[in-house]
UniProtKB/TrEMBL annotation:
Biological process per Gene Ontology, one example term: mitochondrial translational initiation
Family per record: Belongs to the IF-3 family.
Cellular component, GO, one term: mitochondrion
Swiss-Prot/TrEMBL keywords: Initiation factor, Protein biosynthesis
Protein name: IF3M factor
The encoding gene: Mtif3
Residue ranges occupied by any Translation initiation factor 3 N-terminal domain in the UniProt entry: 11-78
A single GO molecular function term of this UniProt record: translation initiation factor activity
Gene3D superfamilies: Translation initiation factor 3 (IF-3), C-terminal domain (3.30.110.10), Translation initiation factor 3 (IF-3), N-terminal domain (3.10.20.80)
One Pfam family hit: IF3_N
Amino acid sequence: QSKRKAAFGSVGRRIPYRILHVINQDGESLGNMHRAEALRLMDEHGLKLVLLHENVEPPVYRLMTGQQIHEEQLKLAEKKKASPKSGVVQKELSFSSAIAKNDLETKIKQIALWIEKKHHVKVTIRQAK
C-alpha cells in the first residue's frame, strides 16, 4: 500500500519511461506519446503528471491539478482507514453461567488486559444445567 500512496504524488520531471500513455485531467485518453511531449503538455496547462499504472506497457500517467491529487490522496486515506487491520488479534473466552465469583473476577481482569492491548474479545457464556 505504501507503493500505491507514493503513486499519487506529483512525479515532476523524473519519468524513467520513454513512451507513456497519457490521460488528461478530464479522464480522456490522449494516447501514447514520448516523455518530452508529455512534459511539454504538463508545462503548457500548468498540471502535474501522476503515475497511475506502472505494470502495463506503456505505463499510464495522468495530468492532474494539485486539487485533484489532494482529493485522490484523501480517498486513499479513507479507504485505508475503512479496511480492516490485518494485525488485529481476536481473543475468545468461554465459561459457564455457574462460575464462581472469584473465577469471574479473574476472567474480567484478563478481558480488561486484552481490551487495553486493543485486541478484539469474544465472550461466550454457557448456561449451567
